[in-house]
Amino acid sequence: MEAIVDALVISKQWAKCDARPAYAGVAHWGNETAIKDIWLEARFANTPAMYLGFAHLRFWPEELYQLSVTDCQKLEVPDAFALNPVQLEEDYHRDPSRRFGPHLTDSVYAFGVSPIPGPQHRARSLSHQHLPIFIPTLQSHLNSVLDQYRAHTVTGPSIGSGTAAHLKNYIRYNLFDWPPARDWLLGSGRIEARNMELMEERIRKYKRKPALSWEKETGKYVFVDNFFEAVLGPIGANSANK
Fold this sequence. Notes:
Layout: H1 2-10, E1 14-17, E2 38-42, H2 48-51, E3 56-59, H3 62-65, E4 74-76, H4 108-111, E5 134-136, H5 138-154, H6 162-174, H7 179-187, H8 193-205, E6 211-215, E7 220-224, H9 227-236
Antiparallel strand pairs: 1-2, 2-3, 4-5, 6-7
């Protein structure tokens, strides 16, 4: 990590800073551990990154993030548009009809559409097309987040509320609270034994917002507490069948 930080500082496009100024002291960004993270602040201006609010970088040591870059399972990222979320590991998408859930790699959102066109918004810049980009697999990253949550939220010291937000988003966007997806995840062997009880607890406690559903009898939209029932109906809410 130090080598990466030093190279960015030497480039004179980034400089070390204490923390992201707008969030200094806010619990979401707090780090009360003895293992310190590193913040960098951008020193360039009039670039798309600045317009989009990417003015700071935060580096977490492996010991703090509970994930080994060398030892974790990794996945090579295709040259997709960086601003379009896509599910690369398609076995996590449990709805065969794709009625809900994240976009997959065969979606136009993966390669054909971008809210801001241009090569500068692709995963690789034009001058670095030869360099592969790797990210942790969902299994490796999800278990590291569960480890973080248990170590820094349950027992402390705290690294802020970001870990809880990561877990919530994992459940929300991968639909892990949908019974077929939940049962598959917990029975797939992807959650380490040390994290199984915590993952079950977080799924059980997650509450999805009510969804709008069209009511034929009244000809009106009504709020339904069960999101999956609103999309699939009372019978399909617990089924993965088409």
